[in-house]
Specification:
Elements (H helix, E strand, L loop, with lengths): L2 E5 L3 E2 L5 E8 L9 E7 L6 E7 L4 E3 L7 E6 L4 E6 L8 E8 L5 E4 L3 E5 L2
Parallel strand pairs: 2-11
Antiparallel strand pairs: 1-3, 3-8, 4-5, 4-9, 5-6, 7-8, 9-10, 9-11
């Protein structure tokens, strides 16, 4: 059974870059037809999909965040990473990493990590 775990700073200053890593156990991030996503949920709001990196290394981002987002991977560590630049307090949220298959349904999630943007 695949397990995902987010890690990274819980506090980021405005205008800096938020960087989070998702470590995957029980399955390879290079397995055919799997997609590895980042999703966030601001306090009191709904879930917002940020983007994914595919088994093939292709990426796709939410158009509303595309200019500030980069998702990459390290296959030697079976990890993928989110970088969100020029953050503001509106980027404060619980950030989740998750997996989906060919159906694009998210079928495995990390527990989430709270990132607060504040000076």
């Amino acid at each position: 059974q695949v397990q995902l775990q987010e890690s990274g700073p819980g506090l980021v200053k405005p205008s800096q870059t938020l960087s989070l890593t998702c470590t995957v156990a029980g399955g390879s991030i290079t397995t055919f037809n799997y997609y590895w996503s980042w999703i966030r949920q601001p306090p009191g709001k709904g879930l917002e999909w940020i983007g994914y990196i595919a088994y093939s290394t292709s990426t796709y981002y939410n158009p509303s965040l595309k200019s500030r987002t980069s998702i990459s991977r390290d296959t030697s560590k079976n990890q993928f990473t989110l970088q969100l630049s020029s953050v503001t307090p509106e980027d404060t949220a619980v950030y989740y990493c998750a997996r989906s298959g060919s159906s694009r349904e998210l079928d495995a999630w990390g527990q989430g990590t709270l990132v607060t943007v504040s000076s």
